[in-house]
């Protein structure tokens, strides 16, 4: 499934209405699925001296950069303490 390993986010359904269209007439434009920006990454964790392959969103990468790889992966349950 297309889910980020860190943030647990998945895809969203977006609509196609503008407020002007809503006010004047009924003209359905359908829905569009918006996917995450998922990347396959091979991350080295020096604390356990191992590489880990994960599918991670760009937001998850920013979280990992901010908090560190070991702490973030431990919190997400991808590695054991």
From TrEMBL:
Keywords: Ribonucleoprotein, Ribosomal protein. Gene3D superfamilies: Ribosomal protein L28/L24 (2.30.170.40). It comes from the Bacteria. Pfam families: Ribosomal_L28. The keyword Methyltransferase does not apply. GO terms for molecular function: structural constituent of ribosome. One of its GO terms (cellular component) is ribonucleoprotein complex. Belongs to the bacterial ribosomal protein bL28 family. This is 50S ribosomal protein L28. The lineage of its organism: Bacteria, Candidatus Nomuraibacteriota.
């Amino acid at each position: 499934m297309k889910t980020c390993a860190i943030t647990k986010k998945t895809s969203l359904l977006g609509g196609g209405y503008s407020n002007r269209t809503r006010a004047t007439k009924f003209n359905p434009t359908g829905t569009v699925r918006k996917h995450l920006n998922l990347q396959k990454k091979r991350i080295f964790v020096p604390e356990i001296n191992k590489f880990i392959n994960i599918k991670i969103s760009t937001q998850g990468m920013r979280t990992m950069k901010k908090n560190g790889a070991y702490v973030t992966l431990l919190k997400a349950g991808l590695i054991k303490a």
